[in-house]
């Protein structure tokens, strides 16, 4: 199958998956509530830490309190891109043996599932994302999401968000291919997902981690999920540093995709199709 | 020969929990792995346009061999060429020329209208728009599913869904159709409709069909040739009448119960 047909098929799959997702509007509302709740909780917590830290030491860690609060809102807004669990539809197919049907489609299974899972994530989550950010903007000044540091910063932020989407999707696919080992169960994939969540900065901004870890935290792949876009937005990472940071997101995406394809091709040789 | 299998072997690993009082705990640390042979060197030929019944007890290896032929599973050893190609080596190219219907699985998208699923399949199989329209109209008319196109799949009855599955499997004009228990769970009227449709499709379009089923009426109504498989080996290959001569010579006449029930349903205006 040539490239044009693959693109058309991908687009078509993307559309139907979005349409499916849009049927579950209540999940978007509940997701927003959870996101806002978390963000507020973190805002209160950080305000306490910043205000009552010894000799105001928290104020010298590279991020001011308003920056941290904006970071929290952006991270919550981007949280939907991250995979908390493997795409439900694909998971079902692995578990009950419908992988068989997927393999009867004249399409590379990796491409097929990449499109499906990323579309599944976008289905309702952009509503949740936009709603969370909107609520953040409307908060009282002390807890509000501030304006971007600069116009250039905003542009870099948007570009980086797109890359974050690709990066999150390719990592989700890597985890999915690991999960193709039916007999391993959920353990390994859940550990990977938890690790990525912590290292993405969603729970604690990476800048606030110990200094000796900063180089590692910058180079590791998961910062690209939320930390890099958020830092570009609040300006703790200047637009001049955007190119290498976004480049890093690209490199990790490529690596994840390559690894995912490799594992999948190997797994498909001795795949277990469950059930009769 | 369109389909050619030679000495295909495939075995699976089965994990067994140790027996006894502490079996559950022991099983968490060490597992007894046994190899189970699903296919023990099976081989046959099927020519273009044939409609072959594929029968055998549960666990005989029917589904496994269908999965090998549709390129899903790679066998441990043996040769298989279908339409001149090795299914698992050229999977993408191979599956664009075959259709599959698994009675126990669905290939339609659960939450969206049937027509949307067909549209996606059109793009996946790269069916030209003109041909797609003609083919869709033709299939929906013969199967009587025009009225169902705008209904989400989850709200269809089993019989309605099965008919839609058939449309989905045949949209791209496959040369070969694998049917794995297509009539499972269907009522008599739907069964008869399905059989008639398959027969017509085979006759008109010359689609080669391999029908796996436990419903012997399906076989009797559709298949000239049957293959019996057991323990992963081919045990009989020939006419259905041949089996009857050997195993049930005294049976002279049999009531077609499906036709009888279907007539009753129609009489009572239940469908």
TrEMBL record, chain A:
Protein name from the UniProt record: ABC-2 type transport system permease protein
Species assigned in the record: Paenibacillus typhae
Residues of the signal peptide: none
Membrane-spanning residues: 26-52, 126-145, 151-178, 190-209, 241-264
Keyword Transmembrane helix in annotation: yes
Keywords assigned by UniProt, alphabetized: Membrane, Transmembrane, Transmembrane helix
TrEMBL record, chain B:
Keyword annotations from UniProtKB, A to Z: ATP-binding, Nucleotide-binding, Transport
Keyword Transport: yes
The keyword Nucleotide-binding is annotated on this UniProt entry: yes
A GO molecular-function annotation: ATP binding
SMART domains referenced in this protein's UniProt entry, alphabetically: AAA (SM00382)
Entry superkingdom: Bacteria
Residue span(s) of domain ABC transporter: 3-256
Protein name: ABC-2 type transport system ATP-binding protein
SUPFAM superfamilies to which the protein is assigned, alphabetical: P-loop containing nucleoside triphosphate hydrolases
InterPro entries recorded: AAA+_ATPase, ABC_transporter-like_ATP-bd, ABC_transporter_ATP-binding, P-loop_NTPase
Pfam families to which the protein is assigned, alphabetical: ABC_tran
